[in-house]
Structures are given as structure tokens and as C-alpha cells.
Amino acid sequence: MKLLQFKKIIFSNLMFLFFAFLNAQTDVILKIDGEEMKGKVQKINDADIDFIYENETLVYQINKAEIKKITFASGRIQFFNKEEKHNVNLESHHNKVAVLPFGYIKDKETSNELMTNKIQQETYTIFKKKSCCFKIPRSTNYKCFVS
Predict the structure, then answer these.
(1) How far is Cα of residue 118 from the mean position of the Cα atoms in its chain?
(2) pLDDT in tens, 11-44
(3) d(Cα 61, Cα 54) in Å, to the nearest integer?
(4) How far is the C-alpha of 16 from the C-alpha of 7, rounded, in Å?
(5) Has this prediction a pTM greater than 0.70?
(6) CATH: 2.30.30.100, 2.10.260.10, 3.30.190.20, 3.40.50.740. Which one for 23-83?
């Protein structure tokens, strides 16, 4: 009985390792549109890549402009067409607060616009007492500064 269980455990472990080995031998191409292509990269040319899908023999040529990155079977990752990073001045966003109009629900009825504006103004007044650097609300999206 124990020998049979031991054989089952050994067999299942070997099958797991076999499938893990097969899965690890594939390259994965991630295209810009989000499509993943699994197979083997045969050659990287100046403008395109020669690629074979898993369990196929036909060689496809994929334009490098369509590829975001390739994860090779070895684990190495090669990036293509990196997205431009927008230069954001973090100092200009530091300590900014937006006081937006908000309301409440009582007895399944929402507050009216007058009450919404009053709550917003009261909130602004409370915050203003705590900090001297708020700007006066001007529109629906109020951007204010907190020191």
C-alpha cells in the first residue's frame, strides 16, 4: 500500500517537473496591444523578429514596432518601444487639497444643491482655520494649498 502511494507521488512529481520544464522553454512576446504570443524567438533582425508558435513550424515575422517586450525562456527580458514617461513636477502637486461639493442622504432623499454648497463652504472654513494657506473655492473642483 505504501509502495503504491510512493509510486504515485513520484510519478506526479515527475509529471509536474516535466510540464514545468516544457513551459519554461517558451519565449513570451508581449505586443503593444496586450496580445501575448508564446513560442520561440528564432532571430531578431533590425526591423522585425522571426518567431515560431508553440507546437508549430511556421516562422512568423513580427514588426518590432508592434512589440512591447520579450520574456525569453532563460528569464531575460528585452524591452522594445518603451512608453514615454511624462515629466511631472511633483513639487507642483505637493500638499494640494481639493474641496469638492458633497451632500448627504437622509430618509432615502439626497440633499439639495443649496445644502451641498453650504456643506462644502463649512468644510472649507474648518480646513481654513487649521491652515492659513488655502485658496478660496471658485468652481466645482477646488484646488487649495495646505502647508
Answers:
(1) 39
(2) 777 766 666 555 557 899 999 888 999 999 999 9
(3) 15
(4) 14
(5) no
(6) 2.30.30.100
